From TrEMBL:
Primary gene name: Ripor3
Domain FAM65 N-terminal: 13-292
PANTHER family to which the protein is assigned, alphabetical: PROTEIN KINASE PKN/PRK1, EFFECTOR, RIPOR FAMILY MEMBER 3
Pfam hit, one: PL48
Signal peptide from the UniProt entry: none
Top-level taxon of the source organism: Eukaryota
Full protein name: RIPR3 protein
Amino acid sequence: GFYNFTLFVFPFCRKSLSRSSVRSRMSLRSPKAYSSLQKGEVVWDPKPLQVKKIFEALKKGLNEYLEAHQAELDYLSGRHKDTKRNSRLVRILLTLITQIRSVERYIRKLEFHISKVEELYEAYCIQCRLRDGAANMKQAFSMSPSTKASRESLVELYKNFQGCTEDMCFIEGALEVHLGEFHLKMKGLVGFARLCPGDQYEVFVRLGRQKWRLKGKIETDDSQTWDEEEKIFIPNLHEKFEIKVTELRGLTTILVGVVTCDSINFFTTKPQAIIVDITELGTIKLQLEVLW
């Protein structure tokens, strides 16, 4: 099922070059929403192309959920019409009415959520265009003869460029609030002849500052036991999953391999089975399941 969305309203206004900060125009917001900003973790280097990719994947995934629930609503509405014709099915009718109202509320939440994501991205694109314009004007002024007026214009353009950069990073943080959760399930290692009974492995999964470390053992019947099987990760706009597998041999560890995995394809309604080549030749693979 889909996660419960945390919804925030951001009343953005279109700005001119005589700009005021996007942040100063936002409504009251939860401090949790921008904890990364408060901790000083944000690098003032926006990534428009990456944000565009995530936005498109996120919107596609949200629309998938919307279509699925709309289909469910259509099915329930059809059953409701059929049940109304039979006066003896009052209990079923009441249950259907409750289900229909629940799905309708959920659809409204999804529609509201999609509109907020679109609003954030529209504001982001505006800041991106303003930033590009300021950068182009800076370059033009820097190539012209230096005068007092041109120097003053350069200072003002630099302020505008920096302000747009900060606002873009701030909107990136706001957009991350709307990305939901990734539920990762450990399905085990696949290694054919490389995996032997008694072998012990450690898998380390990292996404930004989020970490998951788990240990597993190959049993005599070739089954695998792991000390932890599921972990929740909060999606990140810029970070990829980093997966490291080591083999434990007594007091020593042997690195099997390190790989990275993009999360762009995880924003979908269906659980995604992921099989990652840990070694270069693919002799050992890691199998995970991701549910958004």
